[in-house]
Each structure stands twice: as structure tokens, then as C-alpha cells.
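Format notes (please read before filing issues)

Several people have asked whether sequences and C-alpha cells are stored in separate files. They are not. Every record keeps both together, in the order shown below: the sequence lines, then the C-alpha cell lines. Line labels are part of the format and must not be stripped during preprocessing.
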Amino acid sequence: MTKLSIITAVHNQLAMNQWFVEHVKRYTQQPYELIIIDNASTDGSAEFFESVGAKVIRNSANYSYPYTQNQGIAVAQGEWMAFLNNDIVLPPAWDTRLLASAQRHGLDALTVCGIERIESPEATRTLRRRWKRASLPVRLFGAQQPWLKLSHRWMYGDWERFSRQRIERFEGRILEGYVGNSVLMSRTGIERIGLWDERIQAADADLYLRTKKRALEHGDVRPLHIALDVFVHHYIRVTLRANPPAFADAERLIPMGGKWSREEVETLNRVA
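Then the structure lines:
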């Protein structure tokens, strides 16, 4: 069985997709398969992914995140599944380090850290302010490779050195919570926790609550945790600015409050 299945949904954004694949190839260490769910791209993205050996599922319309991830699970061969956004830059050995943290801490589901959340609220705020400045080229000129690269360089300088420094400071350390652009789950974890809930577009938050509830009620999984030594850069909101078409399955989507009451969320968040 393949060690790792990488599952990613896309709609257009060819330049971003090429940038994504470049880093997947460069920095993934484990044997892997790349599964792409193409949501009716018209810019050659599906053909590009096929040309680099990905398994491409072609949808006739744009579907929600949880629906597409479940499409990927249905054909995945991996012992572990990595649910990755396409608008990210991976660090060296991201997969090996996540798997090491999963084994060390007995986790069946974990995420990376990134601009959305790192080791403390103060550090996260500082990082976000820095990205607001560094992202100017992408915000002004769009998600094309020269501007993607320039913003990334302004933000981090030498990416590999930045990644090594994170490892030196936080190797093996985890924090309960989630950063939803990159989620790693074992096949066993998916069997216990269940597939992505296709009613909830805020799938990362829903997954966190589900793992927390499962841990409390059954004790056979741990809640979702963040690996602090695997920092993934996320071009936050670039995909939204690309104005993708409405979801074909929009009618079945419900807000988080339609599934989780405020009282239940507060209770789960209080439990250590």
C-alpha cells in the first residue's frame, strides 16, 4: 500500500497549481500518490496535473470542500491521507515530520502550523501583520508565479532556513487545535471519526469538534493537534479573490450552528 495519499481540490489557478506541485515534488519524502479533484477548470489545470502523473477526478461543476475530499478518499490507496489546499507552500520533509509527530503522540489526525496559528496568540498576530505587508505583490497583481515567489521571499527570505529554524525551536512539539489548509489523517482515524461531513464547508472546525467529541465519548482517538515544527505557508484568501463559481451542492450546506449548538461547542472547547 502507498504510504501517503495527497488529496487536493482545485478550480483553475494554473499558476498556483504549478507552484504547489513544484513544492510537493521537492519536499515530500514518503512514497505518495497525488489525487486531484478538478472542479470544472477551464485553464488547463486538469491537463497539467495529468501531465505530472496525478490521478485526476474531473467534476462537471464546482463542489464544496468536504464533498471533494470524500471523492479523494474513495480512490485513495494510502495508509495516511493528506488533505492539502492548492494555495500553499510546503516545507522540507513536511510529511516525514507530521508522521513522526503522529507516531510520537499517538495521533490519528493532525495539522500543520502557519499564518493562521502558531505557538501563541501574540506570535500569530505578529506573523499576520508581517504577511499583510509581504502579500502586497499578490494582492496588487494577482496569483501569478512572479508575484507568488516575490511575496513568499519578502515574507521568509530563505524558506529552507526559516523551516530549519522552526524545527530547531519546536521539534516534536504539538498544540491542540487546527490549521485547516493541511490536514493529515490515518486510514484508521477516518474509519473511527468518519468521512468529512458534506454539509459543513467549515470542515476543519467541524473535524476538530468531531475528534474532540470522539475522544471524550470513546477514547480511541485524540483531538486534532497542530504540529509546531511543520510550518506551511498559506496564501490566505487568494482562492476567494479568484471568484470561483458557486458550489453545485450549495443547497445541502448548513452553517456550523446548524450542527453544533453554542453550548456544545463551549463545552468541548473547555475540556482539556
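For reference, the curators noted about this record: The radius of gyration is 18 Å. The domain at 4-270 is CATH 3.90.550.10 (Spore Coat Polysaccharide Biosynthesis Protein SpsA; Chain A).
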